Amino acid sequence: MAEALLLVTATSLVLTGAFGLTVWVRPVRPAEALVTFLTFLLSGIMLLTIVVGALLRYYEPIPLACGAGILAGVGLLCASAELRRHPGAFGRRLRVWTRRSLRGWAGRPLPLFLGLLALTAYGLRGWLGVRFPPTDWDGLMYHLVAPAQWAQTGAVDRSKEIIWSDTYPMGVESLAGWPLVFLGSTDYGVLYLLVGYLLAAVAIAGLARRLGAGRGFAVLAGLVFLLTPSVFAQAHTYYVDVQSAAFGLAALYVLAVLPGAARLSGRPGTVVTRKMLVLGAALGAAAGSKSSNLAVLGAVGVAAVAVVAYTARRHRLGFTPFLRSAPALVLPVVIVGGYWYLRTWLNYDNPFYPIAMIGFDGPGTVQNLVMGTNVPVELRGVPLPKQLWISWTRPFTDFQTPIYDIRVGGLGMAWLVVVLPLSIAGVLLWLGRLRHRLGVGAGILLLLGIAVSFGPSPAPWWGRYVLLGYGCLLAFCCLLMSRINRERRGPVRALDGALQFALASCTLLAVATGHLHIPINTSEAEDGAVVAERGGTPLTRLLPLSLAADRAGQVWPWTEFHALDQVPEGSAIALAEGNAQSLIMPLRGPRLQRDLVVVDPPRDLPHLVRQLREYQADYVLIDRAPVWDGIREELDRDPHFTFVTPLSGIAPRYGSAPLGRLYHLKPENLR
User: Is the Translocase keyword given for this protein (predicted)?
Assistant: First the structure.
């Protein structure tokens, strides 16, 4: 109970700090206020993880709560300074925004329908994510491994159980780790990740509004994004693609509103500086989410220079805005995003390790190490245009595909039927409006987002890899739909109704079919055939199971690790660096019942025993990895060890099983 109360307190303090900074930034639009608040909220948790956990090395509940208190104090000081200068201004804006937001839903049945659909879909996914332990492959393999290790050791340090957890930027993982370090369990991690989904939707709606779409259609753009299969299918998992896209979209939106905010303010220079702080927080969080966002960082950084130059020239501010805003932009990028690359650079002499790129050596390229076996069989060796066509048309023939993290068709039926053709027409409409200077800046930024998303992507056919560009295209799509809706001629009104009906039908079909089977697999034999055919368990089976007291032990892969129940809580299991285990998190347990330590590849048995004594590890897990070849045959004969159980139930998607064998180092030999 005390841990939960401390978590609520620390989170409330971060919320307070984010709200105070939002007031200080002086947003003039509701979407701007929400994007600013959510950006500060999420980047604030990332910042606390780095400063308190990594630099001060106190990744523990009380120090993190104290750090949250300092953040709240800074936010309140900034807010009080702004409110003293403009008393009552923010409150008046808040009341106006509320009235406008409520009016924006009036007479708009399609956004209202999709809004209710989104609440239902994300309510279901959030419920399943909270009630069941993690079941997604990448989450169990490395996304949760690092924060669990930090919570175990009390510092944001090395996580050598698997190379990806020790080298990838871990910004989004720090969001999942926030409740984990307080509660010692993974129960509520997905709720903190869902905040990124809201950020993405609001940023898309704001960009569509700046482009010139009506308020209802701007909201529609954000809702369609949330109801895209490759988006909602990740909502109960620890994948980071949606959050990664959300921060990029937030950065684009901040730049899009900057000129207008400066124009409406009596102090344009101050507005530029404060907006650059929000932009820096968004770009730092983006870079700290995925290394592919470095393209977003570079492109948006150049665009920021252009936008600031335009604003400074328009308001005759000279060079001062550059001097004042540069630290506000650069410092959050360096701390929140750059830390992870510096850490990897110091440990591996390559900030992108294990990827070899831009002159840094590594074991392989993105195509070799990341894509490789992730490319579906039907797309291997196929030219890119054909890959795109196969992926984009798949929902027409396969309505039962529930797993959108790997399989093709992740953008759903609405993509090819409505979004792609209307977004292309929307771009043409926007180009025709350039002479009137309507939505020029927002349109340029949206095209930039499309370019950096689809262009550098190693797999543009893969829905979850291009969510940033897809969100930008939705803004153009809804611009055209908004323009058609304004016409009063009979044929155009009929077209408007047909397009809205098609979008609603395709979206409803995607949500309905995407929730028939959820990729959470149970241990029941009768579910096996359904899982093999459909890729998941029927939702009608999962909902009753989510209420069962023993639900945690009835879903994959935790069913494969029941043998570890005999290991006493608090025991430490040793792995060797370079092990072949695919799923690390189940070794610890959903409530971190067991510790993990990583030892050097043993030269011989005495070397292994010395390392186990040093790390106070009473168990060791060996597998088929070559690092164990020198002692593999001797362990069964050695009197220091007792064989406990095989752990060979989990195999990678491709390749051989790890052939794990757990051994217990006898207590008398630990001394």
Answer: no
Q: How many CB atoms lie within 10 A of CB 107?
A: 8
Q: How are strands ordered across the β-sheet holding 572-576?
A: 595-599, 572-576, 619-622, 660-665, 641-647
Structure confidence at residue 655 (pLDDT): 59
Report CA 457 to chain centroid distance, whole Å: 17
CA angle 665, 140, 164 (to 5 degrees): 90
Q: Are 220 and 112 in contact (CB under 8 A)?
A: no
Query: What is the spatial distance between Cα 353 and Cα 369, in angstroms, rounded to a whole number?
Result: 11
Burial 444-476 (b: 16+ CB within 10 A, else e): bbbbbbbebbbeebebbbbbbbbbbbbbbbbbb
Residue 25 to residue 380: CA distance in whole angstroms: 49
| Helix (H) / strand (E) containing 206 | helix 189-211
pLDDT(419) > 90: yes
Residue 233 has φ and ψ, to the nearest 5°, of: -70, -20
For the stretch 447-465, pLDDT in tens is 999 999 998 888 888 888 9
**Spatial contact of 582 and 650, defined as CB atoms under 8 Å apart:** yes
Tokens for 108, please give them: 């708009």
Tokens of 210: 């700046």
Task: Report the alpha-carbon distance of residue 437 to residue 305 in Å, rounded.
Answer: 20
Residues shown for the chain: 671
Q: Which of 105-119, 417-431, 524-538, 590-604 has the lowest mean pLDDT?
A: 524-538
Question: Please, are residues 272 and 258 in contact by the beta-carbon 8 Å criterion?
Answer: yes
Q: What is d(CA 16, CA 525) in angstroms, rounded to the nearest whole number?
A: 49
Q: Return the structure tokens found at 391.
A: 């992926």
- Three-state SS for 144-176 is CHHHHHHHHHCCCCCCCCCHHHHHCCCHHHHHH
